[in-house]
Design a protein that fits this description.
mainly alpha; flat
Length: 67
Amino acid sequence: MKRLKKIGCTIKLGTMVHAITELITFGNAYEVAYWIAKKLGYDDCGCVKREEWLNNLTCRCDESGRL
């Protein structure tokens, strides 16, 4: 089980989703997300909070990377 947790800390879900959106938008993921949020009437797209939340699903590490 501890090995599985270490794999989760190596491959973080939020970081992986961010990388995929960066590939799809040719490196402009935040700009596209903010543009869409503004068009829908929001002040913020919530990208950073969402990425942190997804990372915490796969890894419950502290800032230094320790479990």
